[in-house]
Amino acid sequence: MAEEKKTIFSGMQPSGLITLGNYLGALRNWTQLQDEYNCLYCIVDLHAITVRQDPAKLRRASKEVLMQYIAAGLDPEKNIIYYQSHVPAHAELGWILNCFTYMGELSRMTQFKEKSQKHADNINAGLFTYPVLMAADILLYQTDLVPVGEDQRQHLEIARDIAGRFNNLYGDVFRIPEAYIGKVGARVMALQQPDKKMSKSDENKNNTVALLDEPAVILSKFKKAMTDSENEVRYDPEQKPGVSNLLNIYCAVTDKTIAEAEREFANSGYGNFKVAVGEAVVEKLEPIQKKVAELDKNKDYLDQIIAMNTERASAIAYKTLRKVQKKLGFVPRVR
Prior knowledge:
The protein has helices spanning 20-30, 45-48, 55-71, 89-98, 103-107, 110-118, 125-139, 153-170, 215-223, 241-254, 258-264, 270-296, 299-328; strands spanning 7-12, 38-43, 80-83, 145-147, 178-180. The chain is mainly alpha-helical and 335 residues long. The chain folds into two domains: 7-181 and 299-328, Rossmann fold, CATH 3.40.50; 205-293, Tyrosyl-Transfer RNA Synthetase, CATH 1.10.240.10. α8 (153-170) links the parallel β4 and β5 (178-180). α3 (55-71) packs across α12 and α7 (125-139) packs across α8. The radius of gyration is 22 Å and the shape is globular.
């Protein structure tokens, strides 16, 4: 008997801005998981409204994330790609799990502290209970593995704690998720501040390359990237972080080794080097951008994908939710 595939769950906020760092560090590797695992990729629009959103921009951004997922190689037949708000079980389980989560646990969340400082005029309850909804997202699908960076590890830990607490009270209801440590993609740093990761929320737009940036914009950003005064293309993350970051990016999009790239640019100045990296990125992103443009014109196809995957996600989610409701003593719904 064939071993049952494990389930991987991941969610991305619909900022619409998937960065080169997101793609090279994670998204490109996700395409290699779709045959080995049952994968769910959720566009977490419920999480997005902890910050005030322009409705038209949120709708457009959510669609852009969906299109970029598909254009980057995630097959919507093999993976379940869906909008969080289309599966009400997320919000329902989120409320239930609120009642099994302690205030002290939530007050220790680093991201709540950071976002409270950033949005001091809108410290809402959703911002505080954000990790509980994230726990619901994960636990609804009996998830085995969650790809997480260091900034999300705390949220996975609290999801594990909540699941364990519920299971101790009511029996084996939730699978306890583990962190997914897969193939490590390129670690892409900010172009002008190579001591920090490239981030979609960076206020300095020259730090970040988006998958949908126009070629001229990408080239301009790379031309402005930080290097140093030596004018020597050599990999040395400690002494030459800017140059090393550009070498990492170049090698990630061309599949060359660092040694090969160093030889290629041995007699180049930084100006030529930065243009070459920018052009290599433009070439790598061109087919993704072309596919997004095609998808954007095919509303019927996108609607069909979302309807199909909402149904697939809902079937799994409601199986878990009904089990939880039964354990709690809720009167069964009459179908």
